[in-house]
Each structure stands twice: as structure tokens, then as C-alpha cells.
Design a protein that fits this description.
Bound molecules: zinc ion
Strand content: 5-15%
CATH architecture: 2-Layer Sandwich
Number of domains: 1
Strand order of the largest sheet: 3-4-6-5
Order of helices and strands: HHHEEHEHHEHEHEHH
Oligomer: single chain
Shape: globular
Number of helices: 10
Largest sheet: 4 strands, antiparallel
Helix content: 40-55%
Number of strands: 6
Distance between the termini: 39 Å
């Protein structure tokens, strides 16, 4: 098989392909897909329960204010274009929660632990240094009415339905899709938009459609699956 692939793809591609198959390490995945997934300043960085920000106290270099919230400047620009496009279709996207610092995330996480205990807290909020919100690339969105805020039924609201269909056109993905908790570590969050840039958003959209069309198992609709990183359901410690 190696020889046949070698003929088709050339030596270097085989090496990265074989490495990707045998050891789905981040480095191999980066080579295979051509995206930077380790650097917290990269819009395509993958942050999850196995992949804390490095350094854990990372602060985005440029933040742009959006109403009461802040986003990484590149994400903010795309976000504002998306809001404008939605508004033209009479859908009003509200910014609920954007950038959160390490300290902010720490106090949020601690408050959930106090309220619900650690096990439940870990399914609702990330531990500090493990939150996409700390990258400045994630925004939780809502409707002006506040209906179904941060609940499953958000998907059926005007904003929920609009972002599910159009967010990718602006470089955002629904980072925690339905029924993927064993992969992402989080329940369905139809409100949590993650900026990954237009290229990756399009590539992921295509991969998701292809996997749905061909019935590929598991399907490919998370960053973990797209980059073949393996599931990150729980913390390693
Ligand atoms: Zn969120």
C-alpha cells in the first residue's frame, strides 16, 4: 500500500499521510491539512480539553470592541460584516459573550463549580486556559428578545437559524454541534460561534457535507474530526 501511494503522491506526502494514520499528532495534522493549529494567535488554533492555550495566560494582541464585548480584530471585522448581512435580512444578531481573559474565565468556572460541582461545571464552562473565548475568536450570540438564550432551543430562533446557515460564509463555525459531546467535550451550543477564517470555514463546510452525503462514520463536523486529533471529551488531569 505504501508503495502504491508513493507512486501516486510522492514520498513526503506518504510520510505525512502515514504519520497521520498511525499517530494523529497535531504536527502531522498541520502538515496534512496545511493549517496552523497550535499557535494561539492563529485563527485556526484548536483549543479543547486536551489542548490548552500555550501559554495558558495568552492575551490576544489586538482586540476590537463590539458593544459590551470584545473580539480579536480579524474576527471582529468578519463578525461585523456578518451582523450587517443578517440585519439586511431582518435578523438582529446580539453579541452576548466574546473575549474572556484567563482571570475572567477562572472566576466563571469557579462559580459553576460552586453551584453545580466540578463534573457538571466541566460540561458547561471551560477551565481557564482551555477556553476558546480566551483566544478572542469566539462569540456567543443571541436574539434581541433574549429568547432561548444559551439553550438548545436557540437553534430554532431567527438568529440561531440564520447563523447555522450563513455563519460559515463569514469565516465562523458552530464549534459545538449537536451530539458531539464525546468529541468536543461540550454539549450542543448553537450560539457559540468560532472564527476560523473563511478558508477553513469553507473547507470544514465541504467536509461536513461530504461526510453527510457519503455516510462517513464518524461524520466530520468538528475541528477535532477535521484535523484527526481524536476526541477530547474530558480533561487529562
Ligand atoms: Zn461560548
Amino acid at each position: 500500500m505504501k508503495q502504491r501511494l508513493g507512486g501516486l503522491l510522492g514520498g513526503a506526502a506518504v510520510l505525512s499521510l502515514m504519520a497521520g494514520l498511525v499517530l494523529p499528532s497535531p504536527a502531522a495534522a498541520v502538515m496534512v491539512q496545511g493549517y496552523e493549529i497550535d499557535d494561539p494567535t492563529s485563527p485556526t488554533v484548536v483549543v479543547n480539553k486536551h489542548r490548552p492555550l500555550n501559554p495558558v495566560t495568552h492575551v490576544p494582541e489586538r482586540l476590537t470592541r463590539i458593544k459590551t464585548e470584545q473580539l480579536h480584530s480579524d474576527a471582529a471585522q468578519a463578525y461585523q460584516r456578518m451582523v450587517k448581512a443578517a440585519k439586511a435580512e431582518r435578523v438582529n444578531i446580539v453579541a452576548v459573550s466574546g473575549y474572556r481573559s484567563y482571570d475572567h474565565q477562572a472566576s466563571l468556572y469557579d462559580s459553576y463549580v460552586q453551584q453545580y460541582g466540578q463534573e457538571t461545571a466541566d460540561t458547561i464552562a471551560a477551565r481557564p486556559g482551555h477556553s476558546e473565548h480566551q483566544t478572542g475568536l469566539a462569540m456567543d450570540v443571541g436574539n434581541t428578545s433574549g429568547v432561548c438564550a444559551l439553550q438548545d432551543c436557540f437553534e430554532g430562533t431567527p438568529v440561531g437559524a440564520w447563523v447555522a446557515e450563513h455563519a460559515w460564509e463569514y469565516g465562523f463555525i458552530i464549534r459545538y454541534p449537536k451530539d458531539e459531546q464525546d468529541v468536543t467535550g461540550y454539549k450542543y451550543e448553537p450560539w457559540h460561534l468560532r472564527y476560523v477564517g473563511p478558508q477553513l470555514a469553507e473547507d470544514m463546510r465541504f467536509a461536513a457535507e461530504e461526510s453527510a452525503r457519503t455516510g462517513t462514520q464518524p461524520d466530520i463536523d468538528t475541528m477535532e474530526e477535521f484535523f484527526e486529533l481524536g476526541p477530547a471529551a474530558d480533561y487529562l488531569y
